[in-house]
Design a protein that fits this description.
Largest sheet: none
Distance between the termini: 20 Å
Order of helices and strands: HHHHHHHHH
Helix content: over 70%
Number of helices: 9
């Protein structure tokens, strides 16, 4: 999470540096991305990539680098798309099952698709306020012991399943407010 403000300051530091500034920002992204690959943390890499792309895209569109915006965006997105396609094509069997389960959890309901299917069931069974109920399957211990907790990648699901849809929507709106405030 500390990468985002650091990367924003790097982008700001390379303003008015032209195409070289965009290239240096891209090279600065590679270092933490390699840490995510080495760890390995797919969710960390996706988060890092999305936040970096948003910041760099915003900087190019706003004219921070003083370059042709189309060429600047192509400098960012052509390598991103190329690396993404090559990564998907070279995934091993384990990772490819995980990737397929991300888009279609029913393809592996007892393996990689279990948690995404449970998340869908929890969201569908959530009430405006209070704990979600899955026809008696969800008791008080289940949420804390089986479903990953609030301090993991599933924090929003945990909040919605334990406290309800309205508290979850409040958390989403607070986050969106902070993101809008960041860009303003």
């Amino acid at each position: 999470l500390l990468f985002i403000p650091v990367y924003a300051s790097v982008i700001y530091g390379y303003r008015n540096k032209g195409y070289a500034g965009i290239l240096l920002c891209g090279l600065f992204y590679v270092i933490p991305a390699l840490f995510c690959v080495y760890a390995p943390s797919l969710s960390g890499l996706v988060f890092l990539t999305c936040s970096g792309l948003i910041l760099l895209t915003f900087a190019i569109v706003r004219g921070f680098f003083g370059v042709n915006k189309t060429i600047g965006l192509l400098m960012v997105y052509v390598p991103f798309i190329t690396v993404s396609v090559l990564t998907v094509l070279t995934l091993d069997i384990f990772q490819s099952k995980r990737f397929v389960s991300f888009f279609n959890p029913q393809a592996d309901p007892l393996g990689h698709g279990f948690i995404p299917m449970m998340i869908r069931k929890l969201i569908a069974a959530s009430k405006p306020f209070g704990r979600a109920s899955l026809d008696g399957f969800m008791n008080h211990e289940w949420l804390e012991n089986i479903m990953p907790g609030w301090n993991t990648d599933f924090s929003l699901t945990y909040i919605i399943a334990k406290f309800g849809l309205i508290p979850g929507i409040i958390v989403i709106l607070a986050f969106l407010f902070l993101v809008v405030k960041l860009f303003i």
